[in-house]
Amino acid sequence: MTKLEELSELLVSEIEQFEKTVEKLQKIQEQKILIDSRALENALKLQQENMEKVLSSHKQEMKNLDHSLEKAKAYPAWALTVFVASIILNGILIYTLLS
């Protein structure tokens, strides 16, 4: 008989524990947990705006650099003209001296 009583007590305690667990689960189900993503959306929108500003600034800097590079020359045009003219004159002088 004692074994039967022990088993019944154990069964009753297990059933009570199960009922408590079920009540907890019901309370959790009744609570509606809403995920508010507005803060995340605002942060992402702000980050995107910042990235667009940086990208726009970068594009403008690249345009300025491209414009500067187009204007930049390794040697001025007058120096190249004088150099080519001196080579031609030297060639003519050498040709006349050797002839």
What does this structure look like?
This protein has 99 residues and is mainly α. The mean pLDDT is 88.
Amount of beta strand: under 5%
Runs in which pLDDT lies below 50 for 5 or more consecutive residues are: none
Task: Tell me the radius of gyration.
Answer: 45 Å
- Global morphology: rod-shaped
Structural class: mainly alpha
Q: Could you tell me how far the N terminus lies from the C terminus, measured between alpha carbons in angstroms? A: 141 Å
User: Helix and strand string, N-terminal first?
Assistant: HHH
The total count of helices amounts to 3
Count of beta strands:
0
Which bin fits the share of residues in helices? over 70%
pLDDT averaged over residues: 88
Largest sheet: none
Oligomer: single chain
Q: Layout of helices and strands, plus pairs?
A:
Blueprint: H1 2-30, H2 38-71, H3 77-98
What is this entry, summarized?
The protein is mainly α and 99 residues long. It contains three helices and no strands. The protein has helices at 2-30, 38-71, 77-98.
